[in-house]
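thread from #wetlab-drylab

HS: before we spend reagent money on co-crystallization trials with pyridoxal-5'-phosphate, can we at least see a predicted complex? here's what I'd submit
DV: go for it
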Amino acid sequence: MTLDISIIPSANPKSDEQVAEILANPGFGTYFTDHMFTVEWTPEKGWHDARITAYGPLTLDPATAVLHYAQETFEGMKAYRHDDGSVWTFRPFENAERMKRSSHRLALPVLEPEDFVQAVEALVEVDQRWIAEAGSEKSLYIRPFMIATEAFLGVRPSQHVTFMVIASPAGAYFKGGIKPLTLWLTEEYTRAGRGGMGAAKTGGNYASSLVAQQEAIAQGCDQVVFLDVAEGKYVEELGGMNMYFVYADGHVVTPETGTILEGITRSAIIELTEKAGHKVEERKISIDEWREGVASGEITEVFACGTAAVVTPVGTLKWKGGEVQGSTETGPLTAQIRQSLVDLQYGRAADEFGWMHRVI
Ligand code: PLP
Ligand code: COI
């Protein structure tokens, strides 16, 4: 705890009734809590002026670097309420370390993991009434982000950087709740190549995914699947989720890291699946292996995972001129892994991995 955080409470917080109404049906990413955390960086002063203030718009000079060159990183994590009223985050230091790696890639300054976690947890504490009661699968989605805030149009790393944390009550990421997704395979667009930004959590990766996601929606699909840049052959990930494949003999495959985002859910699932007695392979999986495996019955379940999406089953895969239909139900291992993950996050199962971090 090295940040000296001043707290200036909002003069206009939402009423308890308004918060209750929002928590009854939060959706995803639509409502925001009463406060936000901000800290600024310059080469001379380092990180300074840490504060929690009323949530509200930013005033930015039109020449602010992030608006032009997208020098930006962000994270996604959640706070969960347990039955006894306590509040916990899930592996927050993993998010902090990933932001450090992302920020290195984007030539942004290092925010030390303990400062990152302190900032996140200070905001969660101030806005704790926004975390839904235990018993639902609701949570508080937390969005830390770092932006280049120097007003300068030269292309070089910004000499003024702002790190902020905002929070948003969350229900299911997909409108239909937990039902198998239909995915669209983009053969035209890719996400990230060797030496690119694929492993960094930075806005540009999401900006570049949108046209492909738009194509997916136009094809009646929920999400887009990206293949590798080099050969256009291997499955990478979805726009905002990692992927898993379950084989008939019980082993499980997830695409290896390198050009994909190293999901914190993905890595937890490796451990949970191994603990459940399944062999997990991190390796390349070609799109043909997927298509043929589902068609032949060798691949019995496909699912996607991420902080926002948790564990979401995948049903059909479509591409230009074809499709292969998987199950219309959530598969048994998908359901089991999902359950063991959420039980842990909501404190209903023992935290034998030491993944939960108590905030309140
Ligand atoms: N891949 C992408 C592109 C993502 O945006 C996300 C979500 O954060 C993930 C994978 C899953 O990562 P995590 O489990 O850390 O949320
Ligand atoms: C997350 O799961 O936290 C993400 O950032 C993904 C995004 C699609 C919401």
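DV: The chain has a mean pLDDT of 96.
HS: ok that's useful, forwarding to the group
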